[in-house]
Write a structure and sequence with these properties.
Elements: H1 2-10, H2 15-37, H3 45-48, H4 51-69, H5 81-109, H6 116-145, E1 152-157, H7 161-173, E2 178-184, E3 194-195, E4 198-201, H8 206-213, E5 217-220, H9 227-238, E6 243-246, E7 264-265, H10 268-272, H11 281-288, E8 292-296, H12 301-311, E9 317-322, H13 325-337, E10 344-348, H14 354-364, E11 368-371, H15 378-383, H16 385-405, E12 410-414, H17 425-441, E13 447-452, E14 455-457, H18 463-472, E15 477-479, E16 485-486, E17 488-490, H19 491-504, E18 510-513, E19 519-520, H20 521-531, E20 542-544, E21 563-566, E22 572-576, H21 582-594, H22 601-611
Parallel strand pairs: 1-2, 1-5, 2-4, 5-6, 8-9, 8-11, 9-10, 11-12, 12-13, 13-18, 14-17, 15-20
Antiparallel strand pairs: 3-4, 6-7, 16-19, 18-22, 21-22
Amino acid sequence: MYRLLAFFWKYNLPRWSILIIDLIVCIFSLTLAFFLRFNFKSIPPEDLKNLPYDYALVVVVRLVSFIISKTYKGVVRYTGSSDAMRIFKVVVSGSFVIFLVNMITLYTLGYFVIPTAIIVIDALVTLFLMISSRLAVKAVYFENKNPEKEKIQVIIYGAGESGIITKRTLDRDAAIRYKVVGFIDDDEKKKGRSLEGVFVYPVAKLGDLIKENHVDSVIISIQNLTPSKKNEIIEDCLQYGVRVLNVPPVAKWINGELSFNQIKSINIEELLERDPIKLDNRLINEQLNHKTILITGAAGSIGSELARQCAKFSPSLLILLDQAESPLHELDLEFSEKAISCKYEVVIADIRNTERMRNVFNTFKPDLVFHAAAYKHVPMMENNPSESIYTNILGTRIVADLAVEFHVGKFVMISTDKAVNPTNVMGASKRIAEIYIQSLGKNSATKFITTRFGNVLGSNGSVIPRFKKQIEQGGPVTITHPEITRFFMTIPEACQLVLEAGCMGKGGEIFLFDMGKSVKIVDLARKMIRLSGLKEDTDIKITYTGLRPGEKLYEELLSSSENALPTHHRQILVGKVREYEFKEVQAFITELIQLFKTQDNERIVSKMKDIVPEFLSNNSVFETLDKD
């Protein structure tokens, strides 16, 4: 017997055998219909004499309808709602044909060949038996394949339509490897109700439900959650040590149906998200529509997202410029595959090469420049100061000077919070670049605008991808200092604010973005470990490696001598900073760049400290250059 069952589960039954079983079900249904119609008593003689014709009619009609609709060709163990619907249509259609034959016999022979009540009862019984038998086989098959004790216990957070669809998806696509032990919902009206055989519990019961059922995962199915509410729910779930999964927005469902593979773990980025940014699309459209836009560093995290955002406003030409060949090629492929509507040009160029950049400006004559190209890794620049001044300062000067020469309307520079009270070479180089374009803009028609923000989630070199990799490898997760904090913002958020700030800028401003609250990196790491379903110290260790050269414990958006003023956008401030005369700036920057030839790091950094007096090195060999 066991071998027979094993054979059945391993191999599909022949199609003809399914057809025969379905016909046997139909014969049984008709027999039961007669017994039900006559209350399990004797069948009247006038109906009894037509009984052979009744069976022949029903069997022939059902056989023909099954063959035409191919209901017997489906794999029974994978019966779904579409199969049930097809059976419903076929049985009802067949019963309608039997009814028509009945009407014909009434008008030709003067009597019903089969009572109408029998036709209705037979249709209902046939439907019930054909569908329920298939579902029973499916349930037994998957129970045999995945016994109850081997199933993963899950809770669905949200008892709305999306929650019900999520349960059905788990039942269908996950081969019933998951068992939903309950729904959680804060709607009091749903409390105690049963949905698809599963009860709805209030939020207060979440902990008890997890402990009593040894729940492995909680799936958040609620659509259109605000970031703050989602954060609150995730925090509630994480305190019980369970994995948290998320159902994507309906717009991302494949052909309008949710797939099990789309239910994924919560990303740390989702915990750091804030409410959507409200942009003045009309103003941005006026600035970008039908304009030629040059983006330097277009292959980078910020540059590529800027390109995507700008493309939405239909510029006449988008110039994607970078010296990184492979990432730029990837961006080109992305734009071509997505069939970006605006015209774009991919340009490989080094912003430090005057002749090459002059050719770019002369060829395309941009109306607007977004300058995102820069070296930005603190430890790398601390060890290579000459490269920082060559790219971040000389490169910026070349692009800015050409913007003036070729009458560019606006020049928007992407800066960093590390330019405030810099403690490293990278931050100081960006501050000097800020000083140059601000002073240059005083006497030019081109409007120079600076935007400052902190770390962007998922950017190249960001701490989050590194933590993810370390967790995947089993740890340890390395952090430089237990007290280190950083501001975080998503890449799309940062780029949207860059566009808004660029449009509102009149020239000479340094715009600061509301970065929210600073986050302790160790808390970030702990949360990422818990989101992975692991435990700190038990599964993954956190180790401290010490501050890297030039690194500081916390970042600032304004120095102590600067003030910030509000703008019409609540997430954008404008900083009031010290102003410089262009001739003075031009002289000391020229002198600094000439030091590149010496490759003398101490002389280069010393000169940078002369230009930016607030530049005080931290955890660096250059601390000896700081004056009392």
